[in-house]
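Q: Can someone sanity-check these two? First one:
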Amino acid sequence: MAAALLGQAATPGMADEEPKVPDWIEEINPSDYVLLDSDLPADLHVAGDISAEARAAEAAVMRDGKADVERFAFVEVHENICRPDPEEVYDCIGGNYLLSVYVYETAAQARAAWEKTMVDVYGEIPPPEGFEYVSNVIDPLDSRFGGEGACAGPYIWYRNLACTIFGSHDENDRKIASLWLDKVSRTKPAVQVNLRMREDLSLIMGYQYHGSFLGGENYRPLQEKSAGEQAVQAQVFNAGDEVAENVYIQFYLQMPGEERSKLGDPVPVGSVPPGGGRAASIYWDLGGENVEGAVLGAQAYVPGAVDVDWICF
């Protein structure tokens, strides 16, 4: 969850930065989401290398009755599966199946991708070269979905995953799909947290704030160290039922007409109990120059965890 504050202060110009790969993506192991030779029967094996890449996308969303664009990242993993040569002269002797998996941060993003990119265009775009469309590779009511997935043709949605399986319209299409769903449905789910930040309460400059802060033991009014440094403090609240451990707050700065950039390194705030709050602070170096219209932001997160109520600043 993130909060933003319109700052009237001073700051030096900030250089553009390369977008950082989200922390949860760095925790992804592609082999957890595709089939390895050890997951396949003797009459199938993985041909060649498994490829994986972090990607970015945009989606139109409605917030407070207004159209907005949500930017998010995902991991794309591809592999080819074939029937091996029992005499080991060739890598494959027949059958070629393409398995592609898309790992999103949240189940909502995966389902939206499945509905818009996969279900709505089913039959309207050609399959990958050398493949053909197949019927449902998984029963849409398969019990392993547990109400958190579905299938339409070669397209599968399950929790925070979207998957496509293209083959030769034979029994191996369904065999591969079943083996894949069996594997990922047993994968330990990502840790979930429910962190919140409120614009009217969570981000302040110096003494300027209204209302009361939770977790007062680690919140304190900050005094500027010098005329060229502005004290900034942010607080995160835990709206979940479990202790959120290893919480960090990252501050951001956006100058008028420029892209957002990080303001300092992530600040650890430790564990946040259910219903509690924790604060973190930094000093913003103004560089001796006055500006107006700068926007300060803060995002609270747990590395490797999925925030069930995450909003991008």
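And here is the second, same format, sequence then tokens:
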Amino acid sequence: MPSADRRLQPRRKPRQVRAELTRDRVLTAAAHVFAEHGYAAGTTNRIAERARISIGSLYQYFPNKDAILAELLVRHIDRGKWTQADQLDLSAGSLAATVRALVRDAIDNHRDDPQLLRIMFEEAPVSRELLDTIARHEKKRVDQVRDLLARHPDVHVQDLDTAAELIVFTVETNTHKLMAYPRTAPVGTFENELVAMVTRYLRGGQ
């Protein structure tokens, strides 16, 4: 493992419930500190104070704030699973509703504090664990979407694999941009336009 990755590795993997709760408290405190003060001013001392633990205790779990931020991003990505995908109605005429469920799920998964979301994606250092998590999440999401497209009677595209990848990238990227950089357009307007665009593409002009 490259030295940069070692620098970002948590120092201690909790084996007891109490230790796991302390680690979670550090991550929760860090999320608040980064959102309130920004990443540069979000020091480990501030994080430890917010978590109500000593700085020494914090360093038992994380070597530095870069490792904390990387772990926050890993958790954010791992949390973004489309858990309701298997419950969708895939009957004829339901394509728009299916696409809306996908878009709304992505929006819900990006409702973290906008400033924290920007910090996580702009300043989080790249580690092997982070890259593996992104790849794992992307594959699962694409596989889910491809499975739905293959079973939906209203879908008419030339290549399902390519279509699934395009849709996941389009929805995830635009949703992240919207939630991390709020604009004057309401979320509902964004949702409606993105649903209409993706639905038209999947119908293949029909």
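A (reply): Looked at the second one. The mean pLDDT is 86. The two ends are 51 Å apart (CA to CA).
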